[in-house]
User: What shape does this take?
Amino acid sequence: MSEMTEQEARLVGHLAEMEEDEGIDLAKKMLLEEGADPMRVLELCRAAMDIVGKKFEDGEYFLPELVLAGEMLDTIGAIAKPLIKNAPGEEPRKLGKVLIGTVHGDLHDIGKNIVSFMLDINGFEVKDIGIDVPAATFVSEIEAFKPDVVGLSGFLTLAFDSMKETIATIDKAGLRSDLKIMIGGGQIDETVRAYTGADAFGVNAVEAVSLCKGWMGVNA
Amino acid sequence: MSAVVEAPANAKAAYDARWQRIMDCVALRQPDRMPATLFGTFWLAKYAGVSYKQLMYDLDGTAEIAERAVLELDPDTVSPLVLQTAMGPTLDATGYKQVQWPGQGVGDNQPYQYLDREYMPPEEYDDFLFDPTGYYLRVYLPRVMGAFEGFSEFPNIAGGFYFRLFANVRGFLNPALQDSWARVQKAGQVSQELAEHNNRFVARMAELGYPMGNIATSGAPFDVLGDYFRGARGILTDMRRRGDKLLEACDKMRRLLVKQVVPAAKAAGNPIVFIPLHWAPDAFMSQDQFKTYWWPSFRQMMLDLIAEDLIPMPMWESDCTKRLEIIQDIPKGKAIYWFERADIVRAREVLGDTVALRGNVSPSTLTTGTPEDVDAAVKYIVDNVWNNGGRIILDAAFGLPDETPVENVRAMFRAARKYAG
Assistant: This one.
């Protein structure tokens, strides 16, 4: 991104350092009082999220910071987006498309949400299709979205069978060869990966990003 | 129904020997053999070929299945198998809203699904802190249990005095409150039946020679606030937004939890207090956050229980390997640490002279592996923990996963005897 003014750098700093009140107040002032370009403010938010993601990868930030960063982003986005007058410029090219969801029978979503967030700030186009997703829905979503990677999430042990069934259904629909499948969740390990037939598993969001980057031929 | 099994003549001696193995582990002495424990929830359905829903609602049937499993597997201790599943009538009667269960919200063969929601918005922290009982009665219970809906009209009795006390009494005539009273009384009866059922199961197990691995259960202050009050997003952001308030609430919750579980454990006649933990894992928060927000109130809670001659048995969910040095800071020989995914070998190295260990045959091996895989997993624990002087109670990582093939469970108990006495 282009060079930042002192004020812009301050906004990025507040958001990256979890100074929520200062960050939101400054963003509001820039957008509502000073007429800052909303696209530019969103770009600054993204720069701040890049720092947050890096700190998460480095083990400095954990779930509290990712959740708070996401909420700050939502708050500023809700103010900025209605102010966008012109058609947005061309979106930066994404590294790849990832379809993600929690398999059927399982309602857990925190891990999935964190993985989505980390993939998004790392340059992937992510479509999150929610929780308790039937195998057939994965298939129709794959046909429509044409992802490079499918992420299956699950926390309960029943998810092992749901993942296996979902992967078999994707396979049967003839979609398996065009994409990679990764699985993740509290109980997932190599034994489960082999059982389900997934291409890979990850135990956290950083591993998920690294897998996707690897598959897309990007340096992790 | 299978025929009623006669209690063996040596049941009392067998009971004492089994219990002594657990107490030896707690006291950091190695017992005569590695104890193995049976802890299951809906696995009993797999065992008997019935639906999860049937376990939830058929109390006698569940007790019969549980007894059959215990007699076949011959564990050293048994979890309150009836209490863990046969809650359907009680959940129905109370109109409980924080979980879905087989037959209510999820399919007949799906396990409990806890519903992560914000049950207490942040602005209510002060109400909870000022008067927790009033908050429970008028706000929290009506929110999480349908039977208590009318309790939102509960008269404001605190602050009443002299003739003002009488003025408040007519508030109890409120129709919504009266309606709730009736529902709560009915729910109380159903809950009493479950308690009596559990008591009969505990007595029957004792008659057959099997002590309970625990009866009383509690939670860690931070986890209770996170899971059942603030919700995941709330508790995570509270650490950043209102850390002091969160700490104050953890301390208050700790005192409430202790006040509740101490008499419950004493009445049950079993000193082990099972405390499944949720928010402690390495991946959830930083070491500093853990040391500041999570650990102090839980450590104090364990000290409070120990002071009452109770034995805390936290189950450290997920991987807590990085926390081992921190959680070592409790009195020696007073607790059982049950690990789900933490490295049990490293746990022995760090904690072996402080607490008894419990665990942790992997859920993936149990559910997707062969009996030979399970045998090898138990042998690994025996070779690397038990044979190194480890005081370990063998169990699956969080009790038996519901889907575990019965042959694999048999293999787990067989391997315990084969490799460790």
Notes: Chain A has a mean pLDDT of 92. The domain at 97-215 of chain A is CATH 3.40.50.280 (Rossmann fold). DSSP finds nine helices and five strands in chain A.
